[in-house]
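new request in #modeling-help
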Amino acid sequence: MRKTRWKWTMLGVPVSIAAGCVTYPDQATTREMTEQMVSASFSAPAPALLKRLQQDPSQQICSKLGGAQLTQDEAAQVVKLARDSIKFPASGKLVGDWKVGDQLAHDGAGDRIQFGRLEQRKGNGALCQNCHALEPGEINVGNVGPPLTGYGLQRGNSEAIAKYTYEKIYNAWTVFPCSNMPRLGATGHLTPEQITHLVAYLIDPQSPLNTK
Amino acid sequence: MQKVLWGTAACAAFLFCHCGTALAQNKSDDGLAVGRQMLAEDNPGELWIDRGNRLFREKRGPKKASLEQCDFGLGPGKLDGASAQLPRYFSDTDKVQDLESRLLTCMVELQGFKREDMVKTAISPAFSDGSDMESLAIYITSRSNGMKMNVRLSHPKEREMYKAGEYLFYRRSGQTDFGCVTCHGEGGKRIRLQNLVHMIDKKQLQEVVGSWPAYRGAHGVVRTMQWRLYDCFWQMRLPELEYASDVSIALTTYLHRQGNEAVIRVPGFKR
């Protein structure tokens, strides 16, 4: 740690002597300084919750200034980390109960922290409705992600589709590194069992998402 | 692992020079402004401005002093145009401060209030009369109405705060992998039915930075930028943003600077 700090100081030298021109701290200095700010600017009811502020290696790669493009190596690294993260449910069954999935998909609550308290519930909502159109005709839906309406009608409910869908929800970055879709299974927001219900909601022919 | 990544970033470090380039002026044209004006005319936030005006002059706190000697950057008691230049560096505290953290300084130093007490009550319950902080912040901002946001970054610490804010805007973390950019980095997006402001678009960002503090219908009170940032971190499932913390000031410095030239018009009115 001390060694890296020394390197940053060295990098800082040309910055401070550049004369006649307004200078900004370089990227490494900014990062170190801001990470310290992050450690000092938040509170939580339990110290363990402060860990949420720390970035994992994928999040570090996915935080480029100005949303700059990933290099090929970075993209490959994020995809690899995503692939390695996938865990399947103990039962081995990837398609659960679409009715439970329906509820979860429309539930945006869980795990938020306010007034010194962690929101306690049986399980977290899956947040899908915040970002995706779901059943035909539903109005109160977001558009940060593409519509999922008729997902199963278009793709069917083969084992391959079930697996693709499970993995997509578990860790969206297996397919699109750094996309805006959260890695809901990998980060622990959802359990593998919850994800099987969401898979059912997306691909089961009985699911209201797949009505014509 | 972390070390390797950070090393790479250090190699890519660059020297960023900004030699007084004048930012292009966006003349805001004006159907929108008229609409805002009409809203402003019966915006309940006006009540908060009146209350803030009174509170500002009243002798209060253990030291029985008013805030009339508070320096918001243009000199003690000079309010016209002051908030348009915030956040800025203050030599007495050796810190970059936004309006709310500066108010805290004055409430403590001039009036003798306890910082913890002021922080605890700064964000009021919904449908209450609001906090002193909210009233004072909107009153002081109203004294820049019609003027343009003009955050200068002339002090090195201001430039540090700006770069920190930029870094934070793109910084993703937590179980939802959210950064500000996830929800505010593209046009025409919504979370459920709530429209998301595209903050990389200068014009849209200007609508934001010129309109806080704002009366928030859903809460029946005036809310400030400190509250807005707190609430976004809450949605992100992150720990609670501390009032007037450096992260809040860095983000405000970044957003205000990016929105320079925005015409200030408070009270804003939000959903």
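bot summary: The radius of gyration of chain B is 19 Å.
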